[in-house]
Design a protein that fits this description.
The structure holds two protein chains of two kinds. Chain A has helices spanning about 45-55, 80-100, 130-145, 145-155, 185-195, 215-230, 280-290; strands at about 5-10, 20-25, 30-35, 70-75, 120-125, 170-175, 200, 240, 260. Chain A is of the alpha/beta class. Chain A has a single domain (about 5-295), classed as Alpha/Beta hydrolase fold, catalytic domain (Rossmann fold). By secondary structure, chain B is mainly α. Chain B folds into two domains: about 10-135; about 135-359, no CATH class. Classes of the chains: A alpha/beta, B mainly alpha. Strand 7 of chain A pairs antiparallel with strand 1 (about 290-295) of chain B.
């Protein structure tokens, strides 16, 4: 039987609490970076733990993972709306620091050579992390001069669509993303998002505390939908899986997003992104998006 | 596909320089400094010294366990300064107070000057002899290591300190301030480390919140699936990967020194749990117009069940024999134990085969 290629965990020198799992495959076999962004009140370690234990398990993960380096980014959570811009910029910088050249690993170890670059990128977000990734991609598109020229020209004449460059080459995989901007903030938001907390719907209360009208949230959607319409890059057409029972967010997608038709049975807002021995679907979802068997 | 060999020196370096080992070293150093702080009284200094000693034991324990399964390489297990500190306070950590696997570690730190660290690591075993690197355990072990970093940083320190030496009275007639809980949740390792934080209810509640996140993540890593003959989840012909996790969980349970498995620990835990529930109730009550509230009973039950699995299984032992124990649970438990036993036997036999083919 062929030996399963595993990953080696390394810390990332300039990113406190963030870390990477680097494939032990020969460098020329490694072609993809997968970047994980946690959500409100989450952490790189707590939100994605089970990916660490299962990506090297051939019963749970395909050979696709053997060729991929995984990056788990940790950022300071806070009220989603107060920190949205800061976190977008921080994550934008991080993604740039990983793809295509993994500078974030640092030069202290010789894990990847100076000339090494990834060909492919997969961005994975949970909850608020999903919204942040949408904003990161919008920012990358805004800074891309070829796209800017194309969008401008398209207003008046038929223009040649540019190819995606840099992080715009990404595939986007989102678990229960807060695209509707409906996270409760403050201490109640934290308590609500704890995995051990079970929710009950108040029979009489109006749905309050949902900030669907936040300008940042509306803007992210408007711009993404616009880019998706003209450019049709995969990064603007996220693949989404929702939880079966989600009391934290509204299940709202952008126009061209693709969503799993089946909800993972028994999944909650916090558990939907966590693979386990008996729930390996999140691993397949990151690889194949809604094309995986369980989604159809 | 070409593959480079797994290099245990890399994982050892990561552990000691930036992972759990580094954070335990840092915690121990802070505690060792606090143990001679003249502002603390005698009993506080003793408590600090006890914490420092157990923190050192934990780091060496992880190193020895990882080395035993082949995940870590040879390394210095303690500095001269750490050894002298440990020797000075060794009476605080009697051998018999520790789980079997850590007794060797304690004795090495306290007494074994004559053997080298390499010799100690080479001869360490956590209950049985392994004759090959347990490669199939590495990823789970690595995930558990990564997760355990959460236990020694931020406000969770205040919660664990409280469990060891706290006064449950601090929660009486004290209404926790949500802003202070928020601030405590954002504390970094250094801020949270102040030994007296266990006297501040908000820090303890914030630490408890972090603790529940750790418990949930552990539950993902070591899922309590219905591992029994009738289970629909477990392919009967392949229980090895399930049994492997059960075995690792038993081995890792030896690092649970932070949670006192006695009546004091349990009553302090109960005090924090109820303080957390009261606090949550108040917060949701203030926001009662929200459509989503919490289900107190179910949430308490979840926390209790997880804490029981991962931190104080003695509660379960007390209920053994009681009529309330679900017979299916007992069946599942005995099936899991049998699966672990079979798996251990398989491991031993494959070791023997490997060895005889080498010979």
């Amino acid at each position: 039987m062929a030996q399963r290629i595993r990953h080696t965990k390394v810390s990332l020198p300039n990113y406190n609490k963030s870390f990477a799992l680097l494939s032990d495959a020969a460098e020329d076999e490694v072609n993809r970076a997968v970047i994980f962004i946690h959500g409100f009140n989450g952490s790189a370690r707590g939100t994605w733990t089970d990916f660490l234990s299962l990506v090297d398990d051939p019963s749970a993960a395909s050979g696709w993972w053997e060729r991929a380096d995984l990056f788990f980014f940790d950022y300071q959570w806070d009220s989603i709306f107060r920190q949205l811009t800061n976190n977008t910029l921080t994550i934008y910088k991080f993604v740039n620091d990983v793809f295509p050249k993994p500078e974030a690993i640092g030069r202290a170890h010789s894990f990847r050579s100076d000339a090494f670059e990834y060909d492919n990128l997969t961005l994975v977000g949970h909850s608020e992390g999903g919204l942040l990734l949408r904003r990161v991609i919008v920012r990358a598109a805004q800074l891309d001069t070829a796209i800017d020229a194309f969008m401008e020209k398209s207003l008046y004449e038929k223009a040649t669509r540019p190819d995606p460059e840099g992080m715009l080459k990404a595939d986007m995989r989102l678990f229960a993303p807060a695209l509707g901007g409906d996270m409760q903030s403050g201490i109640v938001g934290i308590l609500s998002s704890l995995p051990v907390v079970s929710h009950a719907l108040s029979a009489s209360a109006a749905r309050k505390g949902m900030d669907q009208g936040s300008p940042s949230v509306i803007e992210a959607r408007k711009r993404s939908d616009n880019y998706a319409k003209y450019l049709r890059f995969p990064c603007f057409e996220a693949h989404i899986t929702w939880a079966e029972k989600d009391s934290i967010i509204n299940s709202e997608k952008y126009d061209r997003d693709h969503e799993c038709v089946n909800f993972p049975p028994g999944s909650s807002h916090t558990s939907v992104c966590k693979p386990t021995l008996t729930y390996p679907e999140p691993i397949g979802f990151v690889e194949e998006g809604v094309n995986q068997y369980g989604c159809k | 596909m070409a593959v480079s060999e797994f290099d245990p020196r890399v994982s050892t370096r990561e552990f000691l320089q930036s992972g759990l080992g580094a954070s335990l070293t840092h915690s121990a150093a802070n505690l060792m400094a606090a143990a001679v702080d003249e502002e603390l009284d005698e009993s506080e200094r003793k408590s600090v010294a006890l914490f420092a000693s157990k923190t050192l034991i934990e780091r060496v324990g992880w190193l020895a366990l990882g080395n035993w399964i082949g995940y870590f390489a040879d390394a210095e297990i303690a500095s001269d300064e750490e050894r002298s500190f440990f020797k000075e306070y060794r009476e605080l950590v009697p051998t018999e107070s520790l789980p079997l696997g850590l007794r060797e570690v304690r004795n090495n730190l306290a007494e074994q000057d004559s053997i080298t660290d390499s010799f100690f690591l080479r001869h360490f075993n956590a209950g049985f002899v392994l004759k090959r690197p347990m490669v199939e355990w590495y990823s789970t072990f690595e995930a558990a290591l990564t997760l355990s970093e959460m236990l020694s940083e931020g406000p969770i320190n205040a919660f664990f300190n409280f469990l060891q030496i706290g006064d449950a009275g601090i929660f009486k007639e004290h209404e926790a301030d949500p802003d202070q809980v928020m601030s405590a949740l954002k504390m970094t390792g250094a801020d949270a480390f102040a030994f007296t934080n266990e006297k501040h209810p908000e820090s303890v509640i914030a630490g408890f919140i972090r603790f529940t996140e750790y418990l949930s993540a552990m539950d993902g890593l070591f899922p309590n699936i219905e591992l029994n003959a009738q289970s629909q989840f477990v392919p009967h012909e392949n229980p090895a990967r399930f049994a492997d996790r059960d075995i690792l969980l038993v081995l890792l349970a030896q690092m649970r020194w932070r949670f006192l498995a006695d009546e004091n620990g349990f009553s302090r835990f109960s005090a924090v749990l109820f303080a957390f529930i009261n606090f949550g109730n108040q917060q949701f009550h203030r926001e009662r117009s929200l459509a989503v509230q919490w289900d107190i009973g179910e949430s308490m039950h979840r926390i209790f069940v997880l804490a029981q699995r991962f931190f104080f299984p003695f509660v379960q032992q007390d209920t053994e024999g009681s009529e309330q124990v679900d017979p299916r649970q007992l069946e599942a438990q005995s099936y899991r134990q049998a699966a672990m036993k079979r798996r251990l036997q398989e491991i031993q036999e494959s070791d023997n085969e490997q060895q005889s083919s080498t010979n």
